Protein backbone atom coordinates (compact mmCIF):
# COMPACT_ATOMS: atom_id res chain seq x y z
CA UNK A 1 0.00 0.00 0.00
CA UNK A 2 2.88 2.37 0.77
CA UNK A 3 4.05 2.08 -2.82
CA UNK A 4 0.58 2.88 -4.09
CA UNK A 5 0.41 5.97 -1.90
CA UNK A 6 3.84 7.08 -3.07
CA UNK A 7 2.51 6.87 -6.62
CA UNK A 8 -0.10 9.38 -5.51
CA UNK A 9 2.66 11.84 -4.67
CA UNK A 10 2.61 11.56 -0.87
CA UNK A 11 5.90 13.38 -0.37
CA UNK A 12 5.74 15.67 -3.38
CA UNK A 13 3.28 17.97 -5.11
CA UNK A 14 -0.18 16.57 -5.84
CA UNK A 15 -0.40 14.54 -9.04
CA UNK A 16 -1.95 16.14 -12.08
CA UNK A 17 -5.72 16.03 -11.94
CA UNK A 18 -6.10 16.05 -8.17
CA UNK A 19 -7.01 19.73 -8.12
CA UNK A 20 -6.18 22.39 -5.51
CA UNK A 21 -4.66 21.38 -2.14
CA UNK A 22 -7.96 21.09 -0.25
CA UNK A 23 -9.49 18.95 -2.97
CA UNK A 24 -6.35 16.84 -3.18
CA UNK A 25 -6.50 16.13 0.57
CA UNK A 26 -10.03 14.75 0.28
CA UNK A 27 -9.19 12.61 -2.74
CA UNK A 28 -5.99 11.42 -1.10
CA UNK A 29 -7.80 10.40 2.11
CA UNK A 30 -10.48 8.54 0.17
CA UNK A 31 -7.89 6.84 -2.03
CA UNK A 32 -5.84 5.80 1.01
CA UNK A 33 -8.86 4.31 2.76
CA UNK A 34 -9.86 2.42 -0.35
CA UNK A 35 -6.35 0.99 -0.65
CA UNK A 36 -6.51 -0.18 2.96
CA UNK A 37 -9.64 -2.15 2.18
CA UNK A 38 -8.29 -3.73 -1.03
CA UNK A 39 -6.45 -7.04 -1.22
CA UNK A 40 -3.02 -7.43 -2.81
CA UNK A 41 -4.39 -8.66 -6.11
CA UNK A 42 -6.53 -5.54 -6.47
CA UNK A 43 -3.63 -3.30 -5.49
CA UNK A 44 -1.59 -4.75 -8.33
CA UNK A 45 -4.35 -3.81 -10.75
CA UNK A 46 -2.82 -0.83 -12.55
CA UNK A 47 -6.28 0.34 -13.62
CA UNK A 48 -7.44 1.03 -10.06
CA UNK A 49 -6.00 4.53 -9.81
CA UNK A 50 -7.02 5.41 -13.38
CA UNK A 51 -10.60 4.31 -12.72
CA UNK A 52 -10.59 6.25 -9.47
CA UNK A 53 -9.41 9.41 -11.22
CA UNK A 54 -11.76 8.97 -14.18
CA UNK A 55 -14.71 8.75 -11.80
CA UNK A 56 -13.92 12.11 -10.19
CA UNK A 57 -13.07 13.76 -13.49
CA UNK A 58 -16.53 13.05 -14.92
CA UNK A 59 -18.31 14.59 -11.90
CA UNK A 60 -18.43 18.23 -10.70
CA UNK A 61 -16.24 19.46 -7.78
CA UNK A 62 -19.32 19.62 -5.56
CA UNK A 63 -19.49 15.81 -5.66
CA UNK A 64 -16.14 15.51 -3.93
CA UNK A 65 -17.13 18.00 -1.24
CA UNK A 66 -20.28 15.99 -0.52
CA UNK A 67 -18.43 12.74 0.14
CA UNK A 68 -17.94 11.36 3.64
CA UNK A 69 -14.30 10.29 3.96
CA UNK A 70 -15.32 7.75 6.61
CA UNK A 71 -17.49 6.06 3.99
CA UNK A 72 -14.91 5.87 1.21
CA UNK A 73 -16.56 2.73 -0.18
CA UNK A 74 -19.40 4.97 -1.38
CA UNK A 75 -17.14 5.98 -4.27
CA UNK A 76 -16.98 2.38 -5.48
CA UNK A 77 -20.75 2.06 -5.13
CA UNK A 78 -21.26 5.22 -7.18
CA UNK A 79 -18.84 3.94 -9.83
CA UNK A 80 -20.77 0.68 -10.06
CA UNK A 81 -24.14 2.44 -10.34
CA UNK A 82 -22.91 4.80 -13.06
CA UNK A 83 -21.43 1.88 -15.00
CA UNK A 84 -24.74 -0.01 -14.87
CA UNK A 85 -26.61 3.10 -16.04
CA UNK A 86 -24.86 2.83 -19.41
CA UNK A 87 -27.06 -0.18 -20.17
CA UNK A 88 -30.43 1.10 -21.49
CA UNK A 89 -32.12 -2.08 -20.27
CA UNK A 90 -31.16 -1.34 -16.66
CA UNK A 91 -32.07 2.34 -16.50
CA UNK A 92 -32.84 3.86 -14.13
CA UNK A 93 -30.36 2.14 -11.84
CA UNK A 94 -31.09 2.65 -8.17
CA UNK A 95 -29.70 1.44 -4.86
CA UNK A 96 -31.43 1.56 -1.47
CA UNK A 97 -29.84 1.24 1.94
CA UNK A 98 -30.90 1.83 5.52
CA UNK A 99 -28.87 4.62 7.15
CA UNK A 100 -30.06 5.16 10.72
CA UNK A 101 -32.96 5.60 13.10
CA UNK A 102 -33.87 9.14 14.06
CA UNK A 103 -35.18 9.65 17.59
CA UNK A 104 -37.91 12.28 17.43
CA UNK A 105 -37.89 12.98 21.17
CA UNK A 106 -34.26 13.62 21.94
CA UNK A 107 -31.42 15.21 20.04
CA UNK A 108 -29.53 11.95 19.68
CA UNK A 109 -28.57 10.49 16.37
CA UNK A 110 -27.22 6.95 16.32
CA UNK A 111 -25.22 5.72 13.35
CA UNK A 112 -25.99 2.41 11.76
CA UNK A 113 -23.05 0.78 13.55
CA UNK A 114 -24.45 1.79 16.95
CA UNK A 115 -27.96 0.69 16.09
CA UNK A 116 -26.74 -2.76 15.17
CA UNK A 117 -25.81 -3.25 18.83
CA UNK A 118 -28.69 -5.50 19.91
CA UNK A 119 -28.84 -4.33 23.52
CA UNK A 120 -29.21 -0.67 22.57
CA UNK A 121 -31.87 -1.40 19.96
CA UNK A 122 -33.94 -3.64 22.24
CA UNK A 123 -33.84 -1.18 25.12
CA UNK A 124 -34.57 1.87 22.98
CA UNK A 125 -37.47 0.37 21.09
CA UNK A 126 -39.03 -0.99 24.27
CA UNK A 127 -39.09 2.52 25.75
CA UNK A 128 -40.12 4.63 22.75
CA UNK A 129 -40.98 2.28 19.91
CA UNK A 130 -43.03 4.85 18.01
CA UNK A 131 -40.56 7.72 18.22
CA UNK A 132 -37.89 6.24 15.96
CA UNK A 133 -38.04 7.11 12.27
CA UNK A 134 -36.09 4.92 9.82
CA UNK A 135 -33.90 6.93 7.45
CA UNK A 136 -32.93 5.44 4.09
CA UNK A 137 -30.65 6.55 1.29
CA UNK A 138 -31.68 6.09 -2.34
CA UNK A 139 -29.18 6.55 -5.17
CA UNK A 140 -30.40 6.93 -8.76
CA UNK A 141 -28.55 7.02 -12.05
CA UNK A 142 -29.92 7.34 -15.57
CA UNK A 143 -29.48 9.48 -18.67
CA UNK A 144 -29.49 13.12 -17.56
CA UNK A 145 -32.33 15.14 -19.04
CA UNK A 146 -34.44 18.24 -18.34
CA UNK A 147 -36.77 17.96 -15.33
CA UNK A 148 -35.26 14.66 -14.18
CA UNK A 149 -35.05 15.95 -10.60
CA UNK A 150 -38.75 16.79 -10.68
CA UNK A 151 -39.54 13.32 -12.02
CA UNK A 152 -37.48 11.59 -9.34
CA UNK A 153 -38.86 13.66 -6.47
CA UNK A 154 -42.40 12.99 -7.71
CA UNK A 155 -41.62 9.28 -7.85
CA UNK A 156 -40.45 9.28 -4.22
CA UNK A 157 -43.39 11.36 -3.07
CA UNK A 158 -45.87 9.05 -4.77
CA UNK A 159 -44.77 6.12 -2.61
CA UNK A 160 -45.04 8.17 0.58
CA UNK A 161 -41.43 9.23 1.08
CA UNK A 162 -40.32 12.60 2.43
CA UNK A 163 -37.08 13.96 0.99
CA UNK A 164 -34.77 15.23 3.75
CA UNK A 165 -31.71 15.81 1.59
CA UNK A 166 -30.99 15.71 -2.11
CA UNK A 167 -27.53 15.70 -3.68
CA UNK A 168 -27.77 16.01 -7.45
CA UNK A 169 -24.87 15.62 -9.88
CA UNK A 170 -24.46 15.41 -13.65
CA UNK A 171 -21.52 13.70 -15.32
CA UNK A 172 -19.60 15.16 -18.22
CA UNK A 173 -20.83 12.33 -20.46
CA UNK A 174 -24.54 12.89 -19.87
CA UNK A 175 -25.54 10.75 -16.89
CA UNK A 176 -27.07 11.66 -13.55
CA UNK A 177 -26.05 10.62 -10.05
CA UNK A 178 -28.75 11.65 -7.59
CA UNK A 179 -28.59 10.79 -3.88
CA UNK A 180 -31.72 11.22 -1.73
CA UNK A 181 -31.97 10.85 2.05
CA UNK A 182 -35.60 10.05 2.88
CA UNK A 183 -37.97 9.09 5.65
CA UNK A 184 -41.53 7.80 5.41
CA UNK A 185 -40.76 4.12 4.91
CA UNK A 186 -42.08 2.53 8.12
CA UNK A 187 -39.39 -0.07 8.74
CA UNK A 188 -35.66 -0.77 8.51
CA UNK A 189 -36.34 -2.58 5.28
CA UNK A 190 -34.15 -1.59 2.36
CA UNK A 191 -35.26 -4.65 0.36
CA UNK A 192 -38.94 -3.83 0.77
CA UNK A 193 -38.38 -0.22 -0.22
CA UNK A 194 -36.32 -1.32 -3.21
CA UNK A 195 -39.18 -3.53 -4.43
CA UNK A 196 -41.66 -0.69 -4.00
CA UNK A 197 -39.38 1.61 -6.02
CA UNK A 198 -38.99 -1.01 -8.72
CA UNK A 199 -42.77 -1.21 -9.07
CA UNK A 200 -43.11 2.59 -9.14
CA UNK A 201 -40.43 2.89 -11.83
CA UNK A 202 -42.14 0.21 -13.93
CA UNK A 203 -45.32 2.29 -13.92
CA UNK A 204 -43.47 5.06 -15.78
CA UNK A 205 -42.25 2.99 -18.71
CA UNK A 206 -40.45 4.64 -21.60
CA UNK A 207 -39.45 7.85 -19.83
CA UNK A 208 -36.02 6.87 -18.53
CA UNK A 209 -33.85 5.80 -21.44
CA UNK A 210 -33.73 9.14 -23.22
CA UNK A 211 -34.34 7.37 -26.53
CA UNK A 212 -37.91 8.47 -27.30
CA UNK A 213 -37.16 10.89 -30.13
CA UNK A 214 -39.74 9.32 -32.43
CA UNK A 215 -42.58 9.57 -29.91
CA UNK A 216 -41.74 13.23 -29.30
CA UNK A 217 -41.85 13.96 -33.01
CA UNK A 218 -45.11 12.01 -33.30
CA UNK A 219 -46.72 14.27 -30.70
CA UNK A 220 -45.84 17.34 -32.76
CA UNK A 221 -46.76 15.82 -36.12
CA UNK A 222 -50.16 14.84 -34.75
CA UNK A 223 -51.05 18.49 -34.20
CA UNK A 224 -50.42 19.57 -37.82
CA UNK A 225 -54.10 19.38 -38.86
CA UNK A 226 -55.05 21.60 -35.89
CA UNK A 227 -52.53 24.38 -36.42
CA UNK A 228 -53.89 25.39 -39.83
CA UNK A 229 -53.00 28.94 -40.84
CA UNK A 230 -50.52 29.27 -37.98
CA UNK A 231 -48.03 27.01 -39.79
CA UNK A 232 -45.18 29.25 -40.94
CA UNK A 233 -43.26 29.04 -44.18
CA UNK A 234 -39.73 28.29 -43.00
CA UNK A 235 -38.32 29.63 -46.26
CA UNK A 236 -39.40 33.12 -45.12
CA UNK A 237 -38.00 32.74 -41.61
CA UNK A 238 -34.60 34.38 -41.18
CA UNK A 239 -32.57 33.22 -38.17
CA UNK A 240 -30.34 35.74 -36.43
CA UNK A 241 -28.21 35.62 -33.30
CA UNK A 242 -28.78 33.13 -30.50
CA UNK A 243 -30.05 35.06 -27.49
CA UNK A 244 -30.72 32.32 -24.93
CA UNK A 245 -30.38 28.61 -24.22
CA UNK A 246 -33.04 26.57 -22.44
CA UNK A 247 -33.28 23.03 -21.12
CA UNK A 248 -34.83 21.71 -24.33
CA UNK A 249 -34.03 24.28 -26.97
CA UNK A 250 -32.40 27.51 -28.07
CA UNK A 251 -33.88 30.97 -28.57
CA UNK A 252 -32.89 33.10 -31.56
CA UNK A 253 -33.70 36.58 -32.73
CA UNK A 254 -34.89 36.72 -36.31
CA UNK A 255 -37.41 38.12 -38.75
CA UNK A 256 -40.54 36.81 -40.45
CA UNK A 257 -42.60 38.74 -43.00
CA UNK A 258 -41.29 42.02 -41.63
CA UNK A 259 -41.85 41.06 -38.00
CA UNK A 260 -39.00 41.26 -35.51
CA UNK A 261 -39.42 37.84 -33.91
CA UNK A 262 -38.09 35.43 -31.32
CA UNK A 263 -37.63 31.86 -32.55
CA UNK A 264 -37.64 29.01 -30.05
CA UNK A 265 -36.02 25.97 -31.68
CA UNK A 266 -36.49 22.54 -30.13
CA UNK A 267 -33.15 20.72 -30.15
CA UNK A 268 -33.36 17.29 -31.73
CA UNK A 269 -31.28 15.61 -29.02
CA UNK A 270 -33.92 16.63 -26.46
CA UNK A 271 -36.92 15.63 -28.56
CA UNK A 272 -38.40 13.01 -26.26
CA UNK A 273 -42.08 12.42 -25.57
CA UNK A 274 -42.23 14.96 -22.73
CA UNK A 275 -40.68 17.79 -24.76
CA UNK A 276 -42.95 16.93 -27.69
CA UNK A 277 -45.99 17.25 -25.44
CA UNK A 278 -44.74 20.58 -24.07
CA UNK A 279 -44.13 21.94 -27.57
CA UNK A 280 -47.58 20.91 -28.77
CA UNK A 281 -49.20 22.26 -25.60
CA UNK A 282 -47.52 25.65 -25.96
CA UNK A 283 -48.57 26.03 -29.60
CA UNK A 284 -52.17 25.02 -28.90
CA UNK A 285 -52.46 27.56 -26.07
CA UNK A 286 -50.63 30.42 -27.81
CA UNK A 287 -52.83 30.22 -30.90
CA UNK A 288 -55.92 30.70 -28.71
CA UNK A 289 -54.84 33.66 -26.57
CA UNK A 290 -54.48 37.30 -27.63
CA UNK A 291 -53.96 39.99 -25.02
CA UNK A 292 -51.66 42.99 -24.67
CA UNK A 293 -50.07 41.37 -21.61
CA UNK A 294 -49.50 37.97 -23.22
CA UNK A 295 -46.65 37.54 -25.68
CA UNK A 296 -47.96 37.58 -29.27
CA UNK A 297 -47.87 34.30 -31.20
CA UNK A 298 -46.72 34.60 -34.83
CA UNK A 299 -46.73 30.94 -35.83
CA UNK A 300 -44.96 27.60 -35.55
CA UNK A 301 -43.21 25.01 -37.66
CA UNK A 302 -44.45 21.50 -36.95
CA UNK A 303 -42.69 19.88 -39.89
CA UNK A 304 -39.44 17.94 -39.40
CA UNK A 305 -36.54 18.08 -39.12
CA UNK A 306 -36.65 21.33 -37.14
CA UNK A 307 -39.55 22.30 -34.91
CA UNK A 308 -39.90 25.90 -33.75
CA UNK A 309 -42.27 28.43 -32.19
CA UNK A 310 -42.21 32.04 -33.40
CA UNK A 311 -43.38 34.91 -31.18
CA UNK A 312 -42.94 38.68 -31.12
CA UNK A 313 -39.46 39.78 -30.08
CA UNK A 314 -39.41 41.56 -26.71
CA UNK A 315 -36.65 44.16 -26.79
CA UNK A 316 -36.61 44.74 -23.05
CA UNK A 317 -35.64 41.18 -22.19
CA UNK A 318 -37.01 39.43 -19.11
CA UNK A 319 -37.82 40.75 -15.66
CA UNK A 320 -35.27 38.25 -14.37
CA UNK A 321 -32.50 39.90 -16.38
CA UNK A 322 -33.67 43.37 -15.40
CA UNK A 323 -33.49 42.52 -11.70
CA UNK A 324 -30.62 40.07 -11.42
CA UNK A 325 -28.27 40.72 -14.34
CA UNK A 326 -28.66 44.49 -14.59
CA UNK A 327 -29.23 44.88 -10.82
CA UNK A 328 -32.06 47.38 -11.09
CA UNK A 329 -33.88 48.54 -7.97
CA UNK A 330 -37.46 49.43 -8.89
CA UNK A 331 -39.34 52.45 -7.64
CA UNK A 332 -42.68 51.52 -6.09
CA UNK A 333 -44.70 53.10 -8.92
CA UNK A 334 -42.85 51.12 -11.61
CA UNK A 335 -43.07 47.96 -9.51
CA UNK A 336 -46.84 48.37 -9.32
CA UNK A 337 -47.12 48.99 -13.06
CA UNK A 338 -45.17 45.83 -13.78
CA UNK A 339 -47.27 43.91 -11.26
CA UNK A 340 -50.50 45.15 -12.85
CA UNK A 341 -49.31 44.07 -16.29
CA UNK A 342 -48.61 40.59 -14.96
CA UNK A 343 -51.98 40.41 -13.19
CA UNK A 344 -53.90 41.53 -16.27
CA UNK A 345 -52.18 38.93 -18.43
CA UNK A 346 -52.75 36.21 -15.85
CA UNK A 347 -56.36 37.24 -15.24
CA UNK A 348 -57.01 36.96 -18.98
CA UNK A 349 -55.43 33.50 -19.05
CA UNK A 350 -57.46 32.33 -16.06
CA UNK A 351 -60.66 33.67 -17.65
CA UNK A 352 -59.80 31.42 -20.61
CA UNK A 353 -59.16 28.45 -18.31
CA UNK A 354 -55.39 28.50 -18.83
CA UNK A 355 -53.20 27.75 -15.81
CA UNK A 356 -49.63 28.85 -16.49
CA UNK A 357 -47.94 26.58 -13.88
CA UNK A 358 -44.50 28.17 -14.28
CA UNK A 359 -44.96 31.86 -13.49
CA UNK A 360 -41.59 33.43 -12.67
CA UNK A 361 -39.57 36.50 -13.65
CA UNK A 362 -37.70 34.60 -16.39
CA UNK A 363 -41.04 34.02 -18.14
CA UNK A 364 -42.14 37.66 -17.91
CA UNK A 365 -40.89 39.73 -20.85
CA UNK A 366 -40.70 43.50 -21.36
CA UNK A 367 -41.34 45.31 -24.63
CA UNK A 368 -39.89 48.62 -25.80
CA UNK A 369 -42.70 50.51 -24.03
CA UNK A 370 -41.97 48.84 -20.67
CA UNK A 371 -45.14 46.74 -20.91
CA UNK A 372 -44.71 43.32 -19.29
CA UNK A 373 -46.11 40.25 -21.05
CA UNK A 374 -46.54 36.68 -19.84
CA UNK A 375 -44.58 34.15 -21.91
CA UNK A 376 -43.50 30.50 -22.08
CA UNK A 377 -46.50 28.19 -22.01
CA UNK A 378 -44.57 24.93 -22.31
CA UNK A 379 -46.04 23.51 -19.09
CA UNK A 380 -49.30 25.50 -19.10
CA UNK A 381 -52.54 23.60 -19.16
CA UNK A 382 -56.19 24.19 -19.96
CA UNK A 383 -58.16 23.65 -16.77
CA UNK A 384 -61.02 21.96 -18.62
CA UNK A 385 -58.82 19.26 -20.14
CA UNK A 386 -60.14 16.84 -17.55
CA UNK A 387 -58.62 15.11 -14.56
CA UNK A 388 -57.17 16.53 -11.38
CA UNK A 389 -53.86 18.33 -11.70
CA UNK A 390 -51.43 16.87 -9.18
CA UNK A 391 -48.15 16.65 -11.12
CA UNK A 392 -45.15 18.60 -9.87
CA UNK A 393 -44.80 21.20 -12.60
CA UNK A 394 -42.94 24.50 -12.56
CA UNK A 395 -39.79 25.83 -10.94
CA UNK A 396 -39.13 25.05 -7.29
CA UNK A 397 -38.32 28.57 -6.05
CA UNK A 398 -41.70 29.88 -7.27
CA UNK A 399 -43.75 26.72 -6.75
CA UNK A 400 -46.88 26.58 -4.58
CA UNK A 401 -46.86 24.11 -1.67
CA UNK A 402 -49.83 22.15 -3.02
CA UNK A 403 -47.88 21.57 -6.25
CA UNK A 404 -44.77 20.52 -4.33
CA UNK A 405 -46.90 18.09 -2.29
CA UNK A 406 -48.53 16.62 -5.42
CA UNK A 407 -51.95 17.63 -4.15
CA UNK A 408 -54.82 18.75 -6.35
CA UNK A 409 -54.32 22.34 -7.44
CA UNK A 410 -55.96 25.00 -9.59
CA UNK A 411 -55.47 28.61 -10.72
CA UNK A 412 -54.50 29.68 -7.19
CA UNK A 413 -51.13 27.95 -7.70
CA UNK A 414 -50.32 30.76 -10.15
CA UNK A 415 -51.29 33.33 -7.49
CA UNK A 416 -48.73 31.84 -5.09
CA UNK A 417 -46.04 32.11 -7.78
CA UNK A 418 -47.09 35.71 -8.39
CA UNK A 419 -46.49 36.48 -4.69
CA UNK A 420 -42.90 35.29 -5.03
CA UNK A 421 -42.52 37.40 -8.19
CA UNK A 422 -43.81 40.44 -6.26
CA UNK A 423 -41.25 39.78 -3.53
CA UNK A 424 -38.59 39.58 -6.25
CA UNK A 425 -39.67 42.94 -7.68
CA UNK A 426 -39.44 44.42 -4.18
CA UNK A 427 -36.01 43.10 -3.29
CA UNK A 428 -34.24 42.46 -6.63
CA UNK A 429 -33.09 39.19 -5.05
CA UNK A 430 -33.45 35.59 -6.13
CA UNK A 431 -35.91 33.78 -3.83
CA UNK A 432 -34.21 31.60 -1.19
CA UNK A 433 -30.81 32.42 -2.66
CA UNK A 434 -28.94 30.63 0.16
CA UNK A 435 -30.77 27.35 -0.55
CA UNK A 436 -30.69 24.91 -3.43
CA UNK A 437 -33.97 24.74 -5.39
CA UNK A 438 -34.94 21.46 -3.74
CA UNK A 439 -34.09 22.76 -0.26
CA UNK A 440 -36.29 25.77 -1.00
CA UNK A 441 -39.15 23.49 -2.03
CA UNK A 442 -38.84 21.42 1.14
CA UNK A 443 -38.84 24.63 3.18
CA UNK A 444 -41.95 26.00 1.43
CA UNK A 445 -43.71 22.74 2.16
CA UNK A 446 -42.98 23.36 5.85
CA UNK A 447 -44.14 26.99 5.78
CA UNK A 448 -40.98 28.82 4.70
CA UNK A 449 -41.50 32.09 2.82
CA UNK A 450 -39.08 34.85 1.72
CA UNK A 451 -38.55 37.58 4.30
CA UNK A 452 -40.28 40.85 3.43
CA UNK A 453 -38.21 44.04 3.82
CA UNK A 454 -39.16 46.16 6.82
CA UNK A 455 -39.86 49.20 4.64
CA UNK A 456 -42.39 47.38 2.42
CA UNK A 457 -45.58 49.37 1.91
CA UNK A 458 -48.09 47.85 4.40
CA UNK A 459 -50.79 47.35 1.76
CA UNK A 460 -48.32 45.55 -0.53
CA UNK A 461 -46.95 43.50 2.37
CA UNK A 462 -50.46 42.36 3.31
CA UNK A 463 -51.26 41.48 -0.31
CA UNK A 464 -48.11 39.39 -0.76
CA UNK A 465 -48.76 37.46 2.44
CA UNK A 466 -52.33 36.69 1.37
CA UNK A 467 -51.13 35.58 -2.06
CA UNK A 468 -48.67 33.05 -0.63
CA UNK A 469 -51.05 31.62 1.98
CA UNK A 470 -50.61 27.87 2.43
CA UNK A 471 -54.36 27.39 1.92
CA UNK A 472 -55.15 28.15 -1.76
CA UNK A 473 -58.72 29.12 -0.85
CA UNK A 474 -57.40 32.07 1.17
CA UNK A 475 -55.48 33.52 -1.77
CA UNK A 476 -57.16 36.28 -3.80
CA UNK A 477 -57.89 35.91 -7.50
CA UNK A 478 -56.01 37.98 -10.07
CA UNK A 479 -59.18 40.01 -10.67
CA UNK A 480 -59.22 40.96 -6.98
CA UNK A 481 -55.49 41.69 -6.97
CA UNK A 482 -55.88 44.08 -9.91
CA UNK A 483 -58.41 46.18 -7.97
CA UNK A 484 -56.07 46.41 -4.96
CA UNK A 485 -52.98 47.25 -7.01
CA UNK A 486 -54.76 49.92 -9.04
CA UNK A 487 -55.95 51.60 -5.84
CA UNK A 488 -52.44 51.48 -4.37
CA UNK A 489 -50.96 52.88 -7.59
CA UNK A 490 -53.32 55.87 -7.35
CA UNK A 491 -51.98 56.54 -3.87
CA UNK A 492 -48.31 56.53 -4.85
CA UNK A 493 -48.46 58.27 -8.24
CA UNK A 494 -49.57 61.67 -9.38
CA UNK A 495 -52.55 61.61 -11.80
CA UNK A 496 -50.50 62.58 -14.84
CA UNK A 497 -48.22 59.59 -14.34
CA UNK A 498 -50.85 56.87 -14.16
CA UNK A 499 -50.33 53.57 -15.89
CA UNK A 500 -53.29 54.34 -18.20
CA UNK A 501 -51.34 57.26 -19.67
CA UNK A 502 -48.32 55.05 -20.13
CA UNK A 503 -50.41 52.58 -22.09
CA UNK A 504 -52.05 55.32 -24.18
CA UNK A 505 -48.60 56.62 -25.11
CA UNK A 506 -47.56 53.08 -26.02
CA UNK A 507 -50.56 52.69 -28.31
CA UNK A 508 -49.86 56.02 -30.04
CA UNK A 509 -46.26 55.05 -30.93
From TrEMBL:
One of its GO terms (molecular function) is protein serine/threonine kinase activity. It is an enzyme of class 2 (transferase). CDD domains: STKc_MAP3K-like. Transmembrane segments: none annotated. Residues 1-20 are annotated as: Disordered. The keyword Nucleotide-binding applies. InterPro entries: ACT-like_dom_sf, ACT_dom, Kinase-like_dom_sf, Prot_kinase_dom, Ser-Thr/Tyr_kinase_cat_dom, Ser/Thr_kinase_AS, Ser/Thr_Kinases-Pseudokinases. PROSITE patterns: ACT, PROTEIN_KINASE_DOM, PROTEIN_KINASE_ST. Its EC number is 2.7.11.1. It comes from the Eukaryota. It catalyses: L-threonyl-[protein] + ATP = O-phospho-L-threonyl-[protein] + ADP + H(+); L-seryl-[protein] + ATP = O-phospho-L-seryl-[protein] + ADP + H(+). Pfam families: PK_Tyr_Ser-Thr. Residues 137-211 form the ACT domain. Residues 237-489 form the Protein kinase domain. Keywords: ATP-binding, Kinase, Nucleotide-binding, Serine/threonine-protein kinase, Transferase. Belongs to the protein kinase superfamily. TKL Ser/Thr protein kinase family. RAF subfamily. This is non-specific serine/threonine protein kinase. The gene is LOC120261131.
